[in-house]
Design goal:
The chain is α+β, with helices and mostly antiparallel strands. The protein has two domains: 176 residues, Winged helix-like DNA-binding domain superfamily/Winged helix DNA-binding domain (Arc Repressor Mutant, subunit A); 58 residues, no CATH class. It has a four-stranded antiparallel β-sheet with strand order 5-6-4-7, with helices on both faces. A three-stranded antiparallel β-sheet has the order 1-3-2. α4 crosses α8, α7 runs antiparallel to α8 and α8 crosses α9.
């Protein structure tokens, strides 16, 4: 995992990872604590993290069951969309999202950026974000103009290369795909000790797919690894969930 630049997960990250991957996203405190103990994290640390996440609105608690809060339900939806194979239909139109208000508070600027990244737009210049219109349109907050239409440009591929670091995306896809293939066989042994590394790798793939640009075929390189990564991750995730469910059944 170190070769991929992946670090160990905190109690908060483990809780988020498992709930974001669970449908419906609800687990008992007992099961969450049992999972984090596999990472060597003490139960007191987990309970403190859960309390803070409830206070911050990240989680909701009902008796001893914890669920994702509204903001993280949106993130789960974006995560699920990232795992779906994008449509290859594109009519040549683009989305351009422009924040027109000046002097916006930092919180609003951060929220706008997060919304654009979540919708897979890329920043052309400050407060101007774009992408091909082959995905669902981004939300349009107040004081934001959203334009959908064709571009007048000699070669849209030049704009794509300006918006996204395609070579870096390609290499990251290949690295993650290789890691999935190396780790896959360990999931069939019904050994919960492999769950920590599995969580770390799974979280890295999901983070990548949540923001991968999902470009139409006309605008992506001939050799483009993200679709293959999605296919490999579907099979990996199925084996991961089987092992995770087997472990959780032992907790009750």
């Amino acid at each position: 995992m170190e070769a991929l630049g992946l670090e160990s997960l905190s109690a908060r990250s483990i809780v988020l990872s498992v709930l974001l991957g669970t449908h419906p996203p609800t687990l008992s405190a007992r099961r969450l604590i049992a999972l984090t103990e596999l990472f060597g994290i003490r139960s007191g640390t987990v309970r403190t993290a859960l309390s803070r996440m409830v206070a911050n609105g990240e989680l909701l608690v009902d008796d001893a069951d914890y669920s994702l809060g509204p903001r993280l339900l949106l993130r789960q939806r974006q995560q699920d969309e990232g795992r779906s194979t994008p449509t290859d239909e594109w009519d040549g139109r683009w989305y351009t999202s422009i924040a027109v208000a000046s002097g916006r508070p930092i919180a609003e600027r951060r929220a706008f950026r997060a919304a654009m990244v979540g919708a897979r737009l890329a920043e052309l210049k400050p407060d101007i974000w774009m992408r091909p219109a082959n995905t669902a349109p981004p939300d349009r907050p107040e004081d934001v103009v959203l334009v959908t239409g064709e571009l007048t440009a000699d070669d849209p591929s030049d704009l794509v290369e300006q918006l996204w670091p395609l070579a870096e995306i390609e290499q990251r896809s290949l690295d993650l795909r290789s890691a999935l293939l190396r780790h896959r066989a360990s999931l069939d042994a019904d050994d919960p000790s492999v769950l920590p590394n599995t969580f770390v790798l799974s979280a890295a793939v999901v983070r990548f797919l949540r923001v991968e640009p999902q470009l139409p075929s006309e605008l992506r390189p001939a050799s483009w690894a993200p679709p293959g990564l999605r296919d490999d991750y579907d099979e990996f995730e199925a084996a991961f969930q089987r092992l995770l469910r087997s472990f959780l059944r032992t907790i009750g």
